[in-house]
From TrEMBL:
It holds the Pfam family TRM5-TYW2_MTfase. Specifically methylates the N1 position of guanosine-37 in various cytoplasmic and mitochondrial tRNAs. Methylation is not dependent on the nature of the nucleoside 5' of the target nucleoside. This is the first step in the biosynthesis of wybutosine (yW), a modified base adjacent to the anticodon of tRNAs and required for accurate decoding. InterPro entries: MeTrfase_TRM5/TYW2, SAM-dependent_MTases_sf, TRM5-TYW2-like_MTfase, TRM5/TYW2-like_N, tRNA_Gua_MeTrfase_euk. Keywords: Cytoplasm, Methyltransferase, Mitochondrion, Nucleus, S-adenosyl-L-methionine, Transferase, tRNA processing. Residues 320-341 are annotated as: Disordered. This is tRNA (guanine(37)-N1)-methyltransferase. Residues 331-341 have a biased composition (Basic and acidic residues). GO terms for biological process: methylation. Belongs to the TRM5 / TYW2 family. Belongs to the class I-like SAM-binding methyltransferase superfamily. TRM5/TYW2 family.
Amino acid sequence: MSETNAADLFRPPVNRAMRTLDRDAFRKTFPISAAVVKQNKDISSLRQALNQSNDALNIPRLSLLQTAPNMPHNKCMLLRPDIKHDYPATWSPTLTEIVNQARVDVVPYDLVLDYDYWSYDQIMSAIVPEENQEVYFPKRFTEVGHVLHLNLRQEHEPYKKVISEVLIDKSNRNIKTVINKLDNVGDENAYRTFKYEVLAGPDDLMVEHHEDGCLFRFNFAKVYWNSRLQEEHRRLVEKFQPGQAVCDVMAGVGPFVIPAAKKRVFVLGNDLNPDSYFYMRENIKVNKVDKFAQPYNEDGNAFIRNSAAYLLQKPVQAGYHDTAPKQKGPKTTEKRKGSPKPKEFIIMDRPQVFSHYVMNLPASAIDFLPSFIGLYTRSPVKEALNGADPRTLFAPHTNNKLPMIHVHCFCPKFPTTEESETEILGRISEKLDFKIDRSMMKELDGEIYDVRDIAPGKEMFCVSFRLPAEVAFRE
């Protein structure tokens, strides 16, 4: 009997009428058999033999080795449910042999499983309607610090209290609060926050969240955060190189800013939400990246228009200690004593131009693209350059390329990828007043990356392309 088939036999008691969680109702006894080990020194070899012969009971989260019934000083091994203690015809040759060798006795065993054993899926499957269970209890949710965040539908309403309590019990031990989102992010305000209800636990949404070695502290009720974007945060940050300058226009509490600054990338992070700005500033401090990250609290369009001048008007240096390279040659007595390696103090100058712009506001980021028109021909840039031609900041006059723009957006699901890309590029072209099609994307080092599905008919993309010179230097 396979592990999957065995597990199917051990299901919790069904109670379709339950609306208030009763943990005691999930205690159930299963009569099976067990092999009592006569000498503890044989446990290892017998375990191996019974596993190889497929006699052992193997189901998730249950130890094969238990205390023998009525024999507190002996151990027993649980046997699969079709083996009967009083019917040797159900025994395998291996089990028969070790019984004949007087190494084990096969005895009846009452396997008691309770609420603590069953998984979230098993508990909910025993409560919600049997038909179409995928509809009646959610299997997708996100964890942010000690908060578990649900998006419940109307079908979940009768079970929401049970769902939340079971999730607290069955999720990792850090979960203390379960909330349900009551509206769509961004529909009520420009800060991407949402109304919510607390389903279980204290109404405490001040969280500490760890992501890729960075610590983020924020009030989840006052800022935007999406743990499902962790891979997207990582993907873009990997494109940034130490010493580059990056402009994050809709930075939130810093999921791009902090890991990029840890790579010694100079980052200017902006968010319109004062609370996001506050926590981004705090996260910069707590992660000790203030030499490389600078927070702003401005309108996104104004921030883009002024961003090029910020780098030119405010030269910045960052210094840090770096471990000196290993020197070849015989080890000295001092090194053998374990003295610390000498460290070199390195000073980096912030570049005069950005290498990347990040615009992670998929509901409306494309609408901010007109602010890139004439990015380097506006008066603040001209003043900072004392009237010099801004084209001299870039190749072929320097090694600098025009910046990459990474703009996130939503798109309806189309039958083909080509249709999705055409729709997105059409919107981008309209906002930039410059046609960018699929062939032009190759010239602009472009990429359209499918980030994730948002809903059955909706996808999130990140469109990356190098800012065209015709747009950047337009008067």
